[in-house]
TrEMBL record:
CDD domains: beta_CA_cladeA. InterPro entries: Carbonic_anhydrase (IPR001765), Carbonic_anhydrase_sf (IPR036874). Gene3D superfamilies: Carbonic anhydrase. Its cofactor is Zn(2+). This is Carbonic anhydrase. Keywords: Lyase, Metal-binding, Zinc. It catalyses: hydrogencarbonate + H(+) = CO2 + H2O. GO terms for cellular component: cytoplasm. Its EC number is 4.2.1.1. Binds 1 zinc ion per subunit. Zn(2+) binds at C47, D49, H103, C106. Belongs to the beta-class carbonic anhydrase family.
Amino acid sequence: MSGHADSAFKAALESNHRWATETAKTDTEFFQSAAKGQAPRILWLGCSDSRVPETTVLGLKPGEVFTHRNIANIIAPTDLSLLAVVEFSVAHLKVSHIVVCGHTSCGGVAGCLANAKLGGPLDIWLQPLRALREKHADELDQLQGAERTTFLGKKNVQQSIDVVRRIPTVIDAERDRGLEVHGVIYHLDSGVLEEVECSEDEKTASLRGATFERK
């Protein structure tokens, strides 16, 4: 291990010890409570980007957000890791909200816009984003610079939410206990979360849910 990498890890470990000590002083029940179990109200489906840590940007504490993150917050209906996270958080933890979060200046989005070959599994993983770029090519041609990245990022969030809403466990929870699904874009230059329009008409929701009505 290089000296630089080693020092980065040691600094992080020391920071953890300081945080644990300070937290134990300011919130004496925090760790005892956390050790007993979790009851998050939010499931966060976001990008792995190091600049978008969910609890930090939401101003919340460990234990308040259940999380799944991957490159460019791609939501694929065959992703077993994602499906396991959704199943556990929705069916067992009974979260009240699912939040799909994209962000500005996303490297995955930028790579797709440039039609760049990123190598390895990345090009396969980002195929849904590349398809969105092709679908919205005319709209993208009317935009410049960062507007293009933000536009495609929002379309990715909307498409991801469409996939989430078709997961049987989510359909059941929306119908039976009012689970809500939301889309947001995190603006790196301001730290603000912007809601993305992801509403649907009642007929669409009804048709989707009818497939899984209990007999």
